[in-house]
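Risk register update: the risk of archive-format incompatibility is retired. Evidence:
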Amino acid sequence: QVQLVESGGGLVQPGGSLRLSCAASGFIFSRNPMAWYRQAPGKGREMVAHISSDNTKNYEESVKGRFTISRDNAKNTVYLQMTSLKPEDTGVYYCILPGAYWGQGTQVTVSS
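Archived output:
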């Protein structure tokens, strides 16, 4: 069965960095797009970044220039490198196989 397991969340000060990882299994990873979504407290879920099977990348406007999505097909893993973090980046970050499956989420808290 499909599994998406996120890791790398935590508490970081404003201006800091974190790298999220998502280990995928149960499907042909290299042939599928992947994405990261987030849900801030009291808000709905929004797409943060998307990467296609041919490595085309798209970002939500507020994270452009600060976040980088990447994938390692040999490791069946997708990453989200987050830099210059802001308090408004706080939320639960989810790895998703678009249109199909969601991971359990990992908490990111940006606070001094």
